[in-house]
C-alpha cells in the first residue's frame, strides 16, 4: 500500500508520516491519499476529522489508522475486481454477438479477439517485470 499525506495540520501531518513511514509515496504513485480536509481528486482519499462523516475521527491510534487503511485498500481492491469482472462479462456478451454472420466474419472476429488477448497478456507480463 502506497500512501500520500496532505494535511493542513502540521502536527497531524507529522504524526501520520511517523505512523506510515514505510508506506509513504509521491502523490502520483500513491494508492491512497490521507487528508484532514475534503479533497476533490481522482485519487482515493481517506478523510480524517474530529467530527462525524470522516473516515477516521480524531483522536485515533496507530492501530485504528492501520485498520481503516487496510479496510479502505481492501474495498478498493474489491471494487477494481468487480469492474474487471464486469468488463469481462461485457466482452463475453459482445463476443457471443460476434458469432452471428458468415463463417469468414466469425473467423475474423475470433482472430481479432485472440490478438487482443495476446497483446493484453504480453502487456501485463512486461508491466510486472
What can you see in these coordinates?
The structure is a single chain. The chain is 57% helix and 12% strand. The protein is an alpha/beta fold. The chain has 2 domains: 3-79, no CATH class; 99-128. It is elongated, with a radius of gyration of 22 Å. The model has no long low-confidence stretch (mean pLDDT 83).
Structural descriptors:
single chain, 129 residues, alpha/beta, four-stranded parallel sheet, 3 helices, elongated
From the spread of the alpha carbons, the general shape counts as: elongated
Average pLDDT figure = 83
| Protein structure class | alpha/beta
Unreliable segments (pLDDT under 50, ≥5 consecutive)?
A: none
Strand order of the largest sheet: 1-2-3-4
Helix count equals 3
The profile of the biggest β sheet is: 4 strands, parallel
Total strands? 4
**Order of SSEs:** EHEEEHH
Give the tally of structural domains: 2
Instruction: Classify the helix fraction into a percent range.
Output: 55-70%
Please state the CA-atom Rg, rounded to the nearest Å: 22 Å
Strand content: 5-15%
**First-to-last CA distance:** 19 Å
Lay out the secondary structure.
Layout: E1 3-6, H1 10-19, E2 32-35, E3 44-49, E4 56-57, H2 62-98, H3 103-128
Parallel strand pairs: 1-2, 2-3, 3-4
Give a short synopsis of this structure:
It is built from three helices and four strands; from the N terminus they run βαβββαα. It has 129 residues and is of the alpha/beta class.
Amino acid at each position: 500500500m502506497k500512501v500520500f499525506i496532505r494535511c493542513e495540520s502540521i502536527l497531524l501531518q507529522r504524526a501520520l508520516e511517523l505512523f506510515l513511514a514505510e508506506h509513504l509515496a509521491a502523490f502520483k504513485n500513491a494508492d491512497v491519499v490521507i487528508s484532514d480536509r475534503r479533497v476533490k481528486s481522482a485519487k482515493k482519499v481517506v478523510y480524517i476529522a474530529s467530527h462525524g462523516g470522516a473516515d477516521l475521527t480524531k483522536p485515533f491510534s496507530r492501530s485504528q489508522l492501520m485498520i481503516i487503511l487496510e479496510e479502505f485498500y481492501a474495498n478498493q481492491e474489491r471494487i477494481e475486481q468487480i469492474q474487471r469482472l464486469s468488463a469481462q462479462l461485457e466482452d463475453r456478451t459482445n463476443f457471443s454477438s460476434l458469432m452471428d454472420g458468415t463463417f469468414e466474419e466469425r473467423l475474423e472476429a475470433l482472430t481479432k479477439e485472440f490478438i487482443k488477448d495476446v497483446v493484453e497478456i504480453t502487456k501485463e507480463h512486461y508491466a510486472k517485470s
